[in-house]
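Standup notes
- DV: blocked on the single-chain target, sequence here:
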Amino acid sequence: YNDCPRFLVNLGKGSVKYQDSCLRPSTNLTELWEQGNGMNQPYGFATEAAKNPDIDEDLYLFGPPAEPVNVHDVGSPTVNALLDSSGGNKGKEKWDFVVMNDHTQAPARLDSRKTTQTALLEKYLPLVLENQATLVIIETAAYQRPGINNSKDLGSAHEFQSRVREGIQSYLEVLQPKFPESLQPRIAPVGTAYLHLHDNNNLLWNELFDPFDHFHPSPLGTFLQGCVVHCTLFGCAPPLPRTEEEIKALWKDARVMHHVKTGKNRRLPSVKEAEELWNVAKRVCTRESSL
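- DV (later): unblocked, structure below
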């Protein structure tokens, strides 16, 4: 939602040299490995804004190209292609960071939690180590309303978030012994930042969610997530946008910015809201690093 990968590049203003992704909606990490990228589907990144300027669609009038060519920038086809440092990513460069998130409910339940742990160790770990990259796992946010999207058993926002956090911690516990001290995996505490607002500014917390499905992020939620991820990667907050124009520029090349049901754009954070979200991300990540 709201093209967080491209958003993060714009937010960092130079701290992120290059990003690529392998994303699939409503998928856990095990299914993502098995099924690969799903962003070429309806409501994914196959939009007008995502068209690759280097691809001439008129060429298709004369038959398919000799090699498969994607007209749209939708990311890498598989996790393996994304992380294969021998040639899977552009320029054959190794990644400095590998950022991932599970389906929010997966770490919150014991059975799916164990399945993900196995996938992380057997599938993802060798590729991350091959890159000598720092692994960052996003602690995603509990849903806005209890019980939606088949989550009734996960309880209130605090209970749900506690279960997610516990699951992400369990991922790190099985991975930490496999990494050298200099490359210990990290948690990006996005859900913890959401919960801080839940307890301290409930009106703004409500604005973090898509108003129709109540669990995907609004642009305000994406802004908070981007700030938290930047703090987790680089140990500092990104530059704070101070005008409406600077905020709009953060999504200047977003491939998708709408809700799947309505197609309508969602409002961006105001300057005041952006500053509060920025401060929350900074405060939560500072507290996290001191634990």
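- Follow-up: The chain has a mean pLDDT of 91.
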